[in-house]
Design brief:
Layout (H helix, E strand, L loop, with lengths): L1 H10 L9 E6 L5 E6 L2 E6 L3 E3 L7 H4 L4 E3 L4 E9 L10 E5 L4 E9 L2 E9 L12 H11 L10 E2 L4 E4 L3 E3 L3 E2 L2 E3 L5 E2 L7 H18 L3 H30 L4 H16 L7 H4 L7 H8 L3
Parallel strand pairs: 4-14
Antiparallel strand pairs: 1-2, 2-3, 5-12, 6-9, 6-10, 6-11, 7-8, 8-9, 12-15, 13-14
Bound molecules: flavin-adenine dinucleotide.
The site of flavin-adenine dinucleotide has 19 residues, from strand 1, strand 6 and helix 4.
């Protein structure tokens, strides 16, 4: 995807500099980027700077944005396996065990390769990292409900790493000539798999605002307003899913005891925003249907 996007940018007339490192961003007007490339540092003045530097974004710090963060509730570990012919290739698996706050996910990639994730409570303090933790990763997947035979011949085909699940976000991702997109604007809990879709949507929404305004200050403000709107729809939805499927304790058990039998009778009670996107309606009626409180 990265190569395709870079080629499209080149074809559209952009100048692409690989191996360059941004050292500072000074908000405007006009905004300035300090770039280090081939051992040389120079400043670039721009009409607009777009910070797309990921979940640990320095652009948002340099440009003076305030970052908000959810409490640390979940950890997410992921690894690519080969040699998993028993996992049918036309099916993705979500195994959820709410009573231990744990989930395991398998996304078959074809050719017996499977991208696998395990999600578990952050307060265990346990992080799965590197080759030595692969057997533990498999055991935790099975504990969440994945059939053990899927892993009979499995071998890791990439690094195993653990990530924090907490969302981080900026309330209004535009100021003084600097717009933030993707994880820099808001990094959604990876266990819900929304981040790349949000990033691509941000790119489209910002592009459309720039094309429809001669005044790019107004375009940046309009982008940030819209970004905040749809991110908070998804964030609200992922919070509800967290309460329903991950939270531990008697209150959470009572919530599930009330909601699950109703969901089993009518699956449309589950909000579908994570698959269909943030254009679906989201209000207290949707919440009450999900939790069986109407
Ligand atoms: C375990 C895990 C599973 C995930 N699963 C899914 C999923 O199933 N579906 C989904 O939609 N999303 C998923 N995501 C989220 C997705 O990966 C991110 O939302 C997405 O990559 C964000 O894109 P980005 O371009 O904003 O940031 P990144 O992909 O992080 O890219 C940022 C880039 O900026 C560069 N950079 C940083 N600082 C500088 C600097 N100073 N100078 C120059 N370059 C710099 C970095 O090198 C990097 O290339 C997952 C994330 C994790 C951690």
């Amino acid at each position: 995807m990265q190569e395709i996007l870079l080629q499209a940018a080149l074809d559209a007339g952009a100048e692409v500099r690989r191996g360059a490192w941004v050292r500072d961003v000074k908000p405007g007007p006009p905004p300035i980027v300090v770039v280090e490339h081939n051992g040389q540092v120079h400043e670039v003045q721009a009409r607009l700077v777009v910070g797309a530097d990921g979940r640990t974004s320095m652009v948002r710090k340099w440009a003076g944005f305030t970052v908000r963060r959810d409490p640390d509730r979940r950890l997410v570990a992921g690894v690519l396996f080969e040699g998993m012919p028993a996992a049918p290739e036309d099916t993705s698996y979500f195994a959820v065990k709410p009573e231990i706050g744990q989930m395991a996910i398998l996304f078959p990639q074809g050719g017996a390769r499977v991208r696998a994730y395990v999600i578990w409570p952050a307060d265990t303090g346990r992080r799965l990292q590197g080759e030595g933790d692969i057997p533990r990763f498999m055991a935790e997947s099975v504990r969440a409900g994945i059939p053990a035979e899927f892993f009979a011949q499995a071998k890791a085909n990439g690094p195993l790493a653990t990530f924090d699940g907490a969302d981080t976000w900026v309330e209004h991702p535009y100021r003084e000539g600097v717009a933030l997109i993707g994880d820099a604007a808001a990094a959604s809990d990876p266990s819900f798999g929304e981040g790349l879709s949000l990033t691509v949507r941000d790119t489209r929404v910002l592009r459309d605002r720039l094309l429809s305004h001669d005044d790019w200050e107004a375009a940046g403000q309009a982008y940030a307003e819209e970004r905040t709107r749809y991110y908070h729809i998804l964030h609200t939805c992922t919070e509800w899913f967290g309460q329903m499927f991950y939270e531990l304790g008697p209150e959470a058990e009572a919530r599930r005891a009330k909601a699950m039998p109703l969901i089993a009778q009518d699956e449309t009670r589950i909000p579908d925003h994570m698959f269909c996107g943030p254009d679906l309606r989201l209000d207290d009626g949707v919440r009450r249907r999900f939790f069986g409180e109407e």
